[in-house]
Amino acid sequence: MKTRENLSSLILLFGATGDLAKRKLYPSLYNLFRKGNLSNRFAVVGVARRLKDDGEFRNWVRDSVTTFGEKADNLEEFISHFYYQSHDVNDSESYKQLKELVDRLDHTYQLEGNRIFYLAMSPEFFGTVAEHLREDGLTNTNGFKRLVIEKPFGHDLASAIELNKRIRSAFKEDEVYRIDHYLGKEMVQNIEVIRFANAIFEPLWNNRYISNIQVTSSETLGVEERARYYDKSGAIRDMVQNHMLQIVSLLAMEPPIRLTTDEIRSEKVKVLRALRPVEGEAVHDYFVRGQYGEGIMNGTKVPAYRDEPNVPKDSNTETFVAGKFLIDNFRWAGVPFYIRTGKRMATKSTNIIVQFKDIPMNLYYKNGSTLNPNLLVIHVQPDEGITLHLNVKKTGEVLGTTPVKLNFSTKSIDGINTPEAYEKLLYDCLRGDATNFTHWDEVALSWRFVDNISEVWTNEQADFPNYAAGSMGPKAAEELLEKDGFFWWPVNF
Ligand code: NAD
């Protein structure tokens, strides 16, 4: 792994005028530069369709950093490293011109032939770009070459295999960095530390002491401008195949023998292999889909999904999924992992709740009823931290108890917001650390699981809409847990 001092690379950014680049990538790169994690030996070539010269492009980047990032004194110095090339992804001539520019910058900035190709553009181009990079000589370099690729990686297993084949014709598996930006989030990265660096949790982290685990990722926004993509994808492909299954595999994996990319990934893969497949009629028992109808949010009426721009009036696409995963191995047999995710829900929140089993015999009472179970809550966003729910003696009473929360918030300790996920992932990629990116085996196993559910849902017309915008999803999502004797804990618990 390279150290901070000698990190040098050319970053070739396809989709340089896109939304992701503007909101996330330039501010994140600038943060790395500002903090000294990106040396002066770097250059960024922005590639997109719209005609722009270097000057216009630099204005674009400056505007992005000042609008979405943190400004500091050396912004102009940072921006002087940016170059622009107007490009057509299907045209070999464009790549040849790009190669000339890249070779020149390699020399100017002493980049040692190191190249990161970042595809922040529509997935339909991923295969074409990767093949052209090889055919037109851009991957022919003495330094490292890495491909960073945004989601979605395919639409189902078959299309993912096809895409992977094309990408692998130009890059080896360990040169491919498949982004799942949840893996860049501070508290998602913290799951492993909480589990494997605390003697009090790991002995309890199994089916003898845990009754169920709940993962919620709720959004308040609707489909916004993404309807053309989203209506073909739905929540199961957009959220469950990647982010939700990644979180579950981090929660359920065995301790790796070492903290290396290969060892960690191999433990995550084992979890995905142990997932009990849900097929055919069983889909109705294990998964619930929903689509939002109109509702009131913050006092304002918002439209139903089917009334959003570019959504068909009879859309069968789910904007909400709740599901139950069972992991058939020694550690987890019998422990349900519930997940739910959706748009236009009551609150914006991602959190994980680990519910411990009840104690064997209750000697106390809490207001005349049973004790609260112990909960470990991992707050992923917008708050970042953990809360441990315990029962303590109620002051002044002999047998009475009261629940208390032990809180840790990253803000209260560090005093600042933690770095944006993209900043961490870009830094990892520059250092050649692929741990927080998704390996092909994980992608393939996740699609195999999700395809079984999509197949059933695609072939049956759903009774949509079935939840009001501003609620926590359809009633059936509550019943999914009720029939197992559980309930969803409130997200901000
Ligand atoms: P966008 O539509 O805003 O931008 C697309 C970019 O691709 C533009 O710069 C455009 O010029 C370029 N482009 C399009 N066709 C081209 C062609 N033929 N030749 C050369 N360049 C071309 O898209 P986006 O929202 O920035 O998303 C990019 C990728 O990132 C997608 O895979 C998306 O799923 C993923 N993603 C986006 C976000 C986000 O917050 N926007 C979040 C997660 C993942």
TrEMBL record:
NADP(+) binds at residues 15-22, 49, 88-89, 151. Residues 13-190 form the Glucose-6-phosphate dehydrogenase NAD-binding domain. Keywords: Carbohydrate metabolism, Glucose metabolism, NADP, Oxidoreductase. Pathway: Carbohydrate degradation; pentose phosphate pathway; D-ribulose 5-phosphate from D-glucose 6-phosphate (oxidative stage): step 1/3. It comes from the Bacteria. GO terms for biological process: glucose metabolic process; pentose-phosphate shunt, oxidative branch. Residues 193-489 form the Glucose-6-phosphate dehydrogenase C-terminal domain. Pfam families: G6PD_C (PF02781), G6PD_N (PF00479). Its EC number is 1.1.1.49. Substrate binds at residues 181, 185, 219, 238, 343, 348. The active site is at residue 243. One of its GO terms (cellular component) is cytosol. Gene3D superfamilies: Dihydrodipicolinate Reductase, domain 2 (3.30.360.10), NAD(P)-binding Rossmann-like Domain (3.40.50.720). It catalyses: D-glucose 6-phosphate + NADP(+) = 6-phospho-D-glucono-1,5-lactone + NADPH + H(+). GO terms for molecular function: glucose-6-phosphate dehydrogenase activity; NADP binding. NCBIfam families: zwf. Catalyzes the oxidation of glucose 6-phosphate to 6-phosphogluconolactone. Belongs to the glucose-6-phosphate dehydrogenase family. PANTHER family: GLUCOSE-6-PHOSPHATE 1-DEHYDROGENASE, GLUCOSE-6-PHOSPHATE 1-DEHYDROGENASE G6PD. This is Glucose-6-phosphate 1-dehydrogenase. It comes from Caldibacillus thermoamylovorans. The gene is zwf.
